[in-house]
Amino acid sequence: MVNWFRRARERIEVPRLTPRSEQRPTARVDLAELTPSLSAYLGHAAYLQLSFFETLSRATAIAPTLEAKEVLARVAGRALEKHRKLVIELERRELDPVQAMEPFAAGVHEFQRVTRGNDWYETLVSCYVTAGFLDDFFVRLGAGLSGEAGARAVAILRQDLEAKELVDLVLDAVGANPRLSSRLAMWGRRLVGDTMLIARSALVLGSDHDTEEARIEPVFTELIASHTRRMDNLGLTA
């Protein structure tokens, strides 16, 4: 659900999911024709990984227990490692990583702001849900990249797609305080629209709005289905 409560943003249509009992397997949609250049792909993905590291670091700083701090520091380290590997791919192409990431800075900063969460629990859900959604999306988008560099980039982003440690932290928190469940479920739903917006910004779209929307709708329907599964993993309702 797009978060209309705090601000007016570009309107996007979030596909409605059918009940789990009625969902049927669908053919995967090819994003190859919508994939940006390799340098833009790497720059955007690298900056998002850096933003995940920053958000995880903030969550580490305010974590209520030493055990939670240690877990979050470990997950943050993996996000930073993915960022570092993507930067190496840029450097292999003799591209300045800062210049490659700069065009995406404003969008990523705004995304961080609106998905930060009001407390540690919401931030924890944000870390798991948004990183999982966007890693999944960029893996799909990478189908349009050619050559070994594209394959390496996709392989980097496939690492740690599930972050089970974050799931365990959320489950433990809700188990200790069941009243958190409804609030975190609502927060998870509010994250979807903003996460879809930043994913959509990575696509190279044509001028025919209706045609392009028809092409990308099945992609986001599948991504939202994966989001629903992630919320199920957390014991929350999507």
Structure description:
Residues 41-198 form the Ferritin-like domain. This is Ferritin-like fold-containing protein. It comes from Lysobacter korlensis. With 238 residues, this protein is mostly helical. It has a single domain, classed as Ferritin. Helices cover 67% and strands 0% of the residues. The chain is built from nine helices and no strands. Helix 1 (38-61) runs antiparallel to helix 2.
Write the layout of secondary structure elements.
Layout: H1 38-61, H2 66-92, H3 97-101, H4 105-114, H5 120-141, H6 147-158, H7 164-176, H8 180-200, H9 209-233
Helix pairs in contact: 1-2, 1-4, 1-5, 2-6, 4-8, 5-6, 5-7, 5-8, 5-9, 8-9
CATH C-level name: Mainly Alpha
Question: Roughly what is the average pLDDT, rounded to an integer?
Answer: 86
Shape: globular
Structural class determined from secondary elements: mainly alpha
Per CATH, the superfamily is Ferritin, core subunit, four-helix bundle
The percent range for helix content is: 55-70%
Strand content: under 5%
Unreliable stretches (pLDDT < 50, length at least 5) are 1-27
As for the number of domains, it is 1
End-to-end gap: 10 Å
Order of helices and strands: HHHHHHHHH
Question: What are its keywords?
Answer:
mainly alpha; Ferritin; globular; Ferritin-like fold-containing protein; Ferritin_actino; Ferritin-like; Haem_Oase-like_multi-hlx
